[in-house]
Specification:
Elements: E1 6-7, H1 15-24, E2 29-30, H2 31-41, E3 46-47, H3 50-62, E4 66-72, E5 78-84, H4 86-111
Parallel strand pairs: 1-3
Antiparallel strand pairs: 2-5, 4-5
Helix pairs in contact: 1-2, 1-4
């Protein structure tokens, strides 16, 4: 049985926000670069489509966690670049801590013996 990329509809709620914030922690990027980073960082396990990515970017912008400005892409095309704000960096720390606790709890449950 082969592996396949997980679509965004299969990603746990909130995980996409965390991944976008992490992608932008390395510096400003346009949407396509964010999606590419997520796919690369997850060894192609997660592929985020435009229909999922851009609403998430807009939601994060409305929350004040990222800011957007227009600029030229690598191909010299107009693109919206997103950057992490100070409150976005703080939110990234909060969400990273929460995710690590959640993942540790799930792994503990997976390794737990049966009740007697």
């Amino acid at each position: 049985m082969g592996t396949r990329a997980t679509t965004s509809s299969e990603i746990l709620r909130g995980t996409l926000d965390l991944l976008i914030l992490q992608a932008l922690s390395w510096g400003p990027a346009h949407g396509y670069a964010v999606a590419r980073w997520i796919q690369h960082a997850t060894a192609d396990a997660l592929a985020i489509g435009e229909g999922t990515l851009y609403p998430a970017l807009h939601r994060l912008e409305e929350r004040g966690w990222i800011a957007a400005t227009w600029g030229a892409s690598e191909n010299n095309r107009q693109a919206k670049f997103y950057a992490l704000t100070r409150s976005g960096r703080a939110q990234l720390r909060v969400e990273t801590d929460q995710w690590r606790r959640y993942a540790a709890a799930v792994f503990a449950a997976l390794d737990a013996p049966a009740l007697k």
